[in-house]
């Protein structure tokens, strides 16, 4: 009898959802997806659940860095309610070199 009571308590446990965003931007396009996930999900799980990997084949989680509101985190970071997961693109040019080129043009 006690076992059935414990099972009932376990099955009645409420699963809380959190709202998260997953964001990715290209020079000419930006996408922010908002959805709900069960509590305890990781950044990687949110990225997969968002479907963003299917929309942008340029995203490779082995090479692209990720963050929460501009702060770099690992893929196993546990999300909090209202977090925005950002998938960062690789830098295609050296920022110092771009500034040098801009400075030469103004002289």
CATH level-four homologous superfamily name: RnfH-like
Q: What is the average per-residue confidence, as pLDDT, rounded to a whole number?
A: 87
| Class inferred from helices and paired strands | alpha+beta
Strand order of the largest sheet: 2-1-5-3-4
Strand-residue fraction? 25-35%
Q: Low-confidence spans: pLDDT under 50, at least 5 residues?
A: 1-5
Q: Which percent bin holds the helix content?
A: 25-40%
Biggest sheet details: 5 strands, mixed
CATH topology: Ubiquitin-like (UB roll)
Total separate domains = 1
User: Termini, distance in Å?
Assistant: 86 Å
Overall spatial form:
elongated
The radius of gyration computed from the alpha-carbon positions, rounded to a whole number of angstroms, is: 20 Å
What is the number of helical segments per DSSP (H or I, 4+ residues)? 4
Record the SSE blueprint.
Blueprint lengths: L1 H10 L5 E10 L2 E10 L4 H8 L1 H4 L10 E3 L2 E3 L10 E4 L7 H12 L1
Parallel strand pairs: 1-5
Antiparallel strand pairs: 1-2, 3-4, 3-5
Give the structure's gist in a few sentences.
Helices cover 32% and strands 28% of the residues. The chain has 107 residues and is an alpha+beta fold. It starts with a helix and ends with a helix.
Would you write up a description of this structure?
The chain has 107 residues and is an alpha+beta fold. The chain has a single domain, classed as RnfH-like (Ubiquitin-like (UB roll), Roll). Helix content is 32%, strand content 28%.
